[in-house]
Amino acid sequence: MMRDNCLLLVYLSLLSSSDVSYGASSLILSGSSSHADLNAPFTVTCTVTQAAGLVDGVYFRKTTALSALGTLYQDGDSCSMFNTPEPGYFPSCGNGTGSSSSTTKKYTLEINKAVVSDATDWWCGLSIAVINSPHLCLLVYIILTNVSMTTRPSSFKAGVFTELQCETSPTYPVATVIWTLNNKTISGEISNSTVTVSGSGVITTSNLTRSYTTEDDGQELVCSATNGEATVSSPALTLSIIGDPERMSALSAGAISGIVIAVVLALAIPTAWILYKRKIKKKSEGMQNESTNRNQNQDHNPTCFRN
Fold first, then answer.
1. Bridge partners (DSSP) listed for residue 70
2. Which of 3, 141, 194, 242 has the most other CB atoms within 10 Å of its CB?
3. What is the rounded distance in angstroms from the CA atom of residue 75 to the CA atom of residue 120?
4. Which residues, in sequence order, are CB contacts of 33 under 8 Å at separation 6+?
């Protein structure tokens, strides 16, 4: 590749000493869309203006490559590939390149499958004129494919703070995570972090920390993410709430009070009944003693009979 570039420069230098001449050209590099998708084709176009009579080499470069990815040679009415392009890239002559008198000529470089290293600055240039286009910052989007709730408790204790975590697949641009409870967005209780995975994209992790009440029982909690291109949601988590601790505490206190009262009553009623029976018995014994005393008094005082 370096040898071919050197040969091109030597050849073009010889041409520059000939009678071939053209005005000061300007170059603009543009993309086939605002961004490239990972593993999808993409095309960059180098537009050369004031290009009538152009005799020069047109090359495509990016900052992550040591040499040109592809080079074309324009010679008046003829345009052809000068050397073998880098694998995965294919340069071609476009509109205006078949006519020497055309003032605007277009050259393209097709990227067969965009890769992460393509997400960088690109430019095109003329070898002899030593003119470069402004840099084009190419964005390579990595499709968001999956969002998962990595913690899925089977139940929650009401009133107790619980942390849930949600994680995205590697993607670019960086995904924004949203939590919803019964389709209502939750805010103010979320913290997010990101990790860049080389050659894959950016993973976003989101933590939701909050407490729940018994009124949340049966509601659906969902974690969703969007990166501007797609929105993906995790499977819904149906909340199962175990009773309110305050109510359970109050219930326990009430239950204890009830037990105490029941025990007191259980002891008090028999005791009262025993005391009552004793009182009745004493009263009965008193009446019997009184009757006996009366009879004894009569025995000591017999009735007088007249003879």
1. 60
2. 141
3. 31
4. 42
Give SS3 for 24.
Answer: coil
**CATH superfamily of the domain spanning 147-242:** Immunoglobulins (2.60.40.10)
Spatial distance between the Cα atoms of 234 and 226, rounded to a whole number of angstroms:
12
Kindly report, residue by residue over 20-65, the tens digit of the pLDDT: 334 578 999 999 999 999 999 999 999 999 999 999 999 999 999 9
Residue with structure tokens 């326990």?
Answer: 252
Instruction: Let me know if the fold of 2-141 is the same as that of 147-242.
Output: yes
CATH number for domain 2-141, candidates 3.90.1150.10, 1.10.10.10, 3.40.109.10, 2.60.40.10: 2.60.40.10
**Can you give the pLDDT at residue 90?**
97
Distance between CA atoms of residues 33 and 45, nearest Å = 11
β-pairing, 42-49 vs 26-31, is: antiparallel
Tokens at residue 68, please?
Answer: 């040109």
**Beta carbons within 8 Å of 299's beta carbon, 6+ residues apart:** none
Task: Quote the percentage of the chain above a pLDDT of 70.
Answer: 72
Q: Which of 264, 150, 248 is nearest to 207 (CA)?
A: 150
